[in-house]
């Protein structure tokens, strides 16, 4: 049994293995779908049949553009929220440029906390990673680099709560939208 677990940790899987240590349960499948349409593609899980590969291609052909539209809408809503708060501050406190700068700073700090600084604490608890490893995973995931050297929910020695992969999937979607706004903001500054 130790040899099988060690082989699994090294990335070796048996063809025809129906359980695959829970990777294709509902949360694992949802997580795979998110990693496919966000183009993260960790490389730790992939379809093993011709029908599965064809389905994955069709799913990605429609899912990737739809995801880009979704991320754009989420980012737009976040931006509208920040602009609305800035307008309210300007009205209440009669601040002109200070309100916009304050709200952008608050949005940046809130996003840093929610998407890059606090999630590594969860990953440390659930995965046993160091804070630095969790921070690295957070950035590599949200930037869609997705090396696959760290992937959540894959340690066979750990028991994960049923909500874990679903919450992380939502974190990925909202975090990517936030990071896209930050990158867009940096591009505007550089131009």
TrEMBL record:
Keywords: Ion channel, Ion transport, Membrane, Potassium, Transmembrane, Transmembrane helix, Transport
Compartments, record wording: Membrane
Membrane topology according to the record: Multi-pass membrane protein
Gene: Kcnk17
Membrane-spanning ranges: 26-45, 52-71, 101-123, 135-153, 168-190
Gene Ontology MF, one: outward rectifier potassium channel activity
Keyword Transmembrane helix: yes
Similarity comment: family membership: Belongs to the two pore domain potassium channel (TC 1.A.1.8) family.
GO biological process: stabilization of membrane potential
Start and end residues of each Potassium channel domain: 18-78, 113-190
Lineage: Eukaryota, Metazoa, Chordata, Craniata, Vertebrata
InterPro entries: 2pore_dom_K_chnl, K_chnl_dom
Any single GO CC term annotated in Swiss-Prot or TrEMBL for this entry: plasma membrane
Full protein name: KCNKH protein
């Amino acid at each position: 049994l130790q040899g099988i677990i060690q082989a699994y940790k090294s990335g070796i899987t048996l063809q025809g293995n129906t359980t695959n240590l829970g990777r294709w349960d509902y949360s694992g499948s949802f997580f795979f779908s998110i990693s496919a349409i966000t183009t993260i593609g960790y490389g730790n899980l992939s379809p093993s049949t011709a029908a599965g590969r064809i389905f994955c291609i069709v799913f990605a052909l429609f899912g990737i553009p739809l995801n880009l539209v979704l991320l754009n809408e989420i980012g737009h809503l976040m931006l509208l929220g920040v602009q609305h708060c800035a307008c309210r501050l300007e009205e209440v406190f009669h601040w002109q440029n200070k309100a916009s700068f304050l709200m952008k700073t608050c949005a940046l700090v809130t996003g840093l906390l929610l998407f890059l600084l606090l999630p590594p604490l969860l990953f440390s608890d659930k995965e046993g990673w160091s804070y630095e490893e969790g921070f690295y995973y957070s950035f590599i995931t949200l930037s869609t680099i997705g090396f696959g050297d760290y992937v959540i929910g894959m340690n066979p020695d750990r028991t994960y709560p049923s909500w874990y992969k679903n919450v992380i999937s939502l974190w990925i979607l909202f975090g990517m939208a936030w990071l896209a706004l930050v990158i867009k903001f940096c591009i505007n500054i550089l131009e």
